[in-house]
């Protein structure tokens, strides 16, 4: 890695800059890039010898100029060319910095971007080398570039390995080729390789290898056909794998694969459980909007809870960069005729509506070109609604859709493809789309619409309490024509009944349901709900009583075909794992095509009774073979995890299931199970499979270690690796599971 970083030499110097947290909190910090080109060291000017570090791998992006609320607040003090922001992965806060000069700022911005780029373009082998290097540095306590046996023993505990002293000493002595009593670079790599020998993969390799040393082209083809169930173009695919993953030039020339190449293939994206062809955009994007599940956020402006949490434009940036395609704003009258965004009647902080719109304009189409829906909960006076409309129009320009496409009255909702690069407003509208197009709505008209959505949020909750209830009252709200005109395909309307909707509803109307109301409809009229969602959009949002920003299970709503299932993106947990799992396919574009039986109004699918539709179930068999380098969850010294794996099926009620392996005592480094779990899947098109690793504890709740969630339809059969994610959805290489998967039809 270090050889690639000649452009970053400037960053090795000890440099002082300001760390900013607010207008009043500004502290000097020294920052320096370490020699590994992977670690940034920093310390306070006053803190003496105490210092800290963070990895370049923790940094997701670098923003130039005043691109955070903190730096915007001090824009009058420091010019934008000296300011930059480090954005960290997961839920860690940003680091806002001011350099001493514009040149210094550019050196850091370009240098760190180059380092991030290098890291992202690393191959599997380079990543592993980097990981080994990181462990070496952690264990080399006296920083002499060598490791004695005591340091190696400490390292084993850090790496989740419980090994008796005799065995550890034998490995150490074998690796110590120089017989110096310490391990240096190459000797440590040898020690690591002995430690991480993959007996489980070797077993599979030798089963197909004629001589136990290599796979001939025919051996590899047999493996691909019999285990990986590859059917088409097997010879060309086998040759491609040898060319891509075989490290030996001689083996490549002879068109054979060594064990190292075989292991490289199995740990690559092509050896992943997730079918790589489905990671890319692969679905038909020309269907009406209502035929897609749409990645959606609730109270997007909040970074924490709903009572005292911090409101920030950062919430919108994070959601949009994750591929979210429907974001929400709660708008209220603000000072100096400027509308503000916050969770009304609470102590959450406030941000300006115009700042949210600016961020939307800047970030809406960075992760996906497909349309973004801005869901407005409007509590503003008519005067400030006009200001809102003005900001939307002036800041977003042509990105804001204000008239039907092609200027013609549509007969149905347009497709995501039709709406590429467009922002749609969801909100109340005076009259219908027909009235707007025919010029029936008078320019001077100020409409009055019922303000039922906020009321519904509380009244639909069966267990509401008085402190919330006393704020809610049915009301009529005045609506400005200017804001009304910004709503085209997503007119918010009150839902009466499925029968009423079937007769009276227009395709461009959308109703919102609290989670409890949606569940009630699913229980009582699931098939009608599915049909309703084949014709128009529905939005489901969390109960007003979830003041901790917790989430409901989105799977229940997807089972009924609800498209906009709004979750609190700021809250990690199984619900967001499912959301990430569903939308990690199809190019992470935020739109996933619903199954055909949910789009066809002539079919009758009931999620509560799917067997009535004549669907043929499948059998899913997963053999959990082993785990690799699982992260520690307990920082207590000497603590080593006792891992178990749970496989969960999330889908229609008939498919909901979970099973666990045994737990393995004191081995988070290379646990081996060979446990087989069996499931029956009745509606595979709606099923998600979640793999969870936990640290078993017989006296209290198990600790979360890692997880991976994917759609059932994206699973590749055969021997596969599952690359685990942390609680907040970021990767934790090289932590993985090795499994064998079989999917068969039930007769």
Automatic annotation (TrEMBL):
GO terms for molecular function: calcium ion binding; phosphatidylinositol-4,5-bisphosphate phospholipase C activity. Substrate binds at residues 19-46, 426, 428, 512, 539. Transmembrane segments: none annotated. PROSITE patterns: C2, EF_HAND_1, EF_HAND_2, PH_DOMAIN, PIPLC_X_DOMAIN, PIPLC_Y_DOMAIN. Residues 459-469 have a biased composition (Basic and acidic residues). One of its GO terms (cellular component) is endoplasmic reticulum. InterPro entries: C2_dom, C2_domain_sf, EF-hand-dom_pair, EF_Hand_1_Ca_BS, EF_hand_dom, PH-like_dom_sf, PH_domain, PI-PLC_fam. The active site is at residues 298, 343. This is Phosphoinositide phospholipase C. Binds 3 Ca(2+) ions per subunit. Two of the Ca(2+) ions are bound to the C2 domain. Residues 453-473 are annotated as: Disordered. Residues 483-599 form the PI-PLC Y-box domain. Residues 27-117 form the PH domain. One of its GO terms (biological process) is lipid catabolic process. Ca(2+) 5 binds at residues 695-697. It is a peripheral membrane protein. It catalyses: a 1,2-diacyl-sn-glycero-3-phospho-(1D-myo-inositol-4,5-bisphosphate) + H2O = 1D-myo-inositol 1,4,5-trisphosphate + a 1,2-diacyl-sn-glycerol + H(+); a 1,2-diacyl-sn-glycero-3-phospho-(1D-myo-inositol) + H2O = 1D-myo-inositol 1-phosphate + a 1,2-diacyl-sn-glycerol + H(+). It comes from Cyprinus carpio carpio. Residues 599-726 form the C2 domain. Keywords: Calcium, Cytoplasm, Endoplasmic reticulum, Glycoprotein, Hydrolase, Lipid degradation, Lipid metabolism, Membrane, Metal-binding, Nucleus, Repeat, Transducer. Residues 127-162, 163-198 form the EF-hand domain. Glycans are attached at residue 178.
């Amino acid at each position: 890695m270090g050889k690639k970083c000649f452009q970053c030499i400037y960053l090795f110097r000890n440099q002082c800059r300001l760390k900013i947290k607010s207008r009043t909190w500004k502290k000097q910090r020294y920052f320096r890039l370490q020699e590994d080109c992977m670690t940034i060291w920093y310390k306070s000017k006053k803190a003496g010898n105490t210092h800290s570090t963070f990895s370049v791998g923790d940094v997701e992006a670098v923003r130039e100029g005043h691109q955070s609320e903190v730096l915007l607040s001090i824009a009058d003090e420091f010019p934008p060319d000296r300011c930059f922001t480090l954005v960290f992965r997961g839920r860690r806060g940003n680091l806002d910095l001011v350099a001493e000069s514009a040149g210094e700022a550019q050196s850091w911005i370009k240098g760190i971007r180059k380092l991030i780029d290098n890291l992202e373009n690393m191959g599997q082998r380079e990543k592993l080398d980097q990981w080994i290097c990181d462990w070496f540095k952690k264990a080399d306590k006296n920083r002499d570039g060598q490791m004695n046996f005591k340091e190696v023993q400490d390292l084993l505990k850090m790496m989740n390995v419980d090994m008796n002293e005799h065995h550890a000493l034998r490995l150490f002595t074998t690796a110590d080729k120089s017989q110096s009593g310490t391990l240096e670079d190459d000797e440590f790599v040898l020690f690591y390789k002995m430690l991480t020998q993959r007996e489980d993969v070797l077993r599979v390799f030798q089963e197909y290898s004629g001589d136990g040393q290599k796979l001939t082209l025919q051996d590899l083809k047999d493996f691909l056909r019999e285990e990986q169930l590859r059917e088409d173009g097997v010879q060309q695919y086998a040759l491609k794998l040898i060319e891509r993953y075989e490290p030996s030039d001689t083996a490549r020339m002879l068109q054979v694969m060594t064990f190292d190449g075989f292991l490289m293939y199995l740990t690559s994206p092509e050896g992943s459980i997730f079918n790589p062809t489905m990671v890319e955009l692969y679905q038909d994007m020309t269907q009406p909007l209502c035929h897609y599940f749409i990645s959606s956020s609730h109270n997007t402006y909040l970074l924490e809870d709903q009572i005292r949490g911090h409101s920030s434009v950062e919430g919108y940036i994070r959601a949009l960069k994750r591929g979210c395609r429907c974001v929400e704003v709660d708008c209220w009258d603000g000072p100096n005729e400027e509308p503000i965004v916050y969770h009304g009647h609470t102590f959450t902080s406030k941000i300006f509506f115009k700042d949210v719109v600016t961020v939307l304009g800047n970030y809406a189409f960075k992760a996906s070109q497909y349309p973004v829906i801005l869901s407005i909960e409007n509590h503003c006076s008519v005067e400030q609604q006009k200001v809102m409309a003005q900001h939307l129009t002036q800041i977003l320009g042509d990105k804001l859709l204000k008239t039907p496409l092609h200027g013609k009255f549509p007969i149905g909702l347009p497709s995501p493809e039709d709406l590429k690069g467009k922002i749609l407003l969801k909100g109340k509208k005076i009259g219908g789309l027909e009235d707007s197009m025919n010029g029936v709505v008078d320019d001077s008209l100020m409409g009055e619409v019922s303000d039922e959505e906020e009321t519904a949020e509380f009244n639909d909750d069966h267990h509401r309490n008085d402190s919330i209830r006393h704020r809610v009252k049915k009301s009529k709200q005045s609506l400005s024509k200017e804001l009304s005109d910004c709503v085209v395909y997503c007119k918010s309307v009150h839902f009466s009944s499925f029968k009423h909707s079937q007769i009276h509803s227009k395709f461009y109307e959308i109703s919102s349901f609290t989670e409890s109301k949606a569940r009630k409809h699913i229980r009582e009229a699931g098939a009608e709900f599915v049909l309703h969602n084949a014709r128009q959009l529905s939005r489901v949002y969390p109960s007003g009583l979830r003041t901790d920003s917790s989430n409901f299970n989105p799977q229940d709503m997807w089972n009924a075909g609800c498209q906009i299932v709004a979750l609190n993106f700021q809250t990690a947990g199984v619900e967001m794992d499912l959301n990430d799992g569903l939308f990690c396919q199809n190019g992470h574009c935020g739109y996933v095509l619903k199954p055909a039986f949910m789009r066809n109004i002539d079919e009758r699918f009931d999620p509560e009774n799917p067997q009535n539709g004549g669907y043929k179930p499948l059998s899913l068999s997963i053999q959990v073979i082993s785990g690799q380098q699982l992260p520690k969850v307990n920082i207590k010294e000497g603590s080593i995890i006792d891992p178990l794996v749970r496989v969960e099926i999330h889908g229609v009620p008939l498919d909901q299931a979970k099973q666990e392996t045994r737990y393995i005592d004191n081995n988070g480094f290379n646990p081996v199970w060979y446990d087989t779990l069996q499931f029956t899947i009745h509606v595979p098109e709606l099923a998600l499979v979640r793999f969870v690793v936990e640290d078993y504890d017989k006296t209290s709740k198990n600790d979360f270690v890692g997880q991976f969630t994917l759609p059932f339809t994206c699973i590749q059969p055969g021997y596969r690796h599952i690359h685990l994610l942390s609680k907040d959805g970021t990767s934790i290489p090289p932590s993985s599971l090795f499994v064998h998967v079989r999917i068969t039809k039930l007769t």
